[in-house]
Amino acid sequence: MFLVQVPAPTPPPGLPSPEVVIGGGGPSTEQLLIMVIGAAVIVGIVFLGPIGRALADGLRHLLGGRKAADAPGLEGLKDEVATLQHRVAELEERQDFAERLLAQARERGLLAGPGKD
């Protein structure tokens, strides 16, 4: 297999040469820095402003997060938890009382302790 290298064909008249298109310059470093800073400011304003809050609410909704509309249901759950905590505290007091009575009965010899038959 032989490869023959030939010179590149000349572009048709009216078209720019490839060197002009490829190496056509571009923004300077200062211009690029200004564009990046400007884009960062615009993105920051969008995401921290009302549009950003709306996007965050949409994501929360998609991911199953709660909204402010759930506040009445949340308050009901808080009340129920408080009631249950109160009931558990009462049960703890009753258990402590029963344990004290049993300990007093053992001290008086009214009850046989474990292992005493």
The low-confidence parts are none
Distance between the termini: 107 Å
What is the string of helix and strand elements? HHHH
Return the structural class: mainly alpha
The outline comes out as elongated
Rg of Cα set = 40 Å
Largest sheet: none
**Total beta-strand segments:** 0
Tell me what portion of residues adopts beta-strand conformation: under 5%
Count of runs of 4 or more consecutive helical residues: 4
Mean pLDDT metric: 80
Q: Please give the share of residues in helix.
A: 55-70%
Strand and helix layout:
Blueprint: H1 18-22, H2 29-48, H3 50-62, H4 71-108
Helix pairs in contact: 2-3
Would you kindly provide a written description of the structure presented here, covering whatever features stand out?
The chain is an all-alpha fold and 117 residues long. Among the domains are: 28-64; 74-109. Helices cover 65% and strands 0% of the residues. It contains four helices and no strands. It has helices at 18-22, 29-48, 50-62, 71-108. Helix 2 (29-48) crosses helix 3 (50-62). It is elongated, with a radius of gyration of 40 Å.
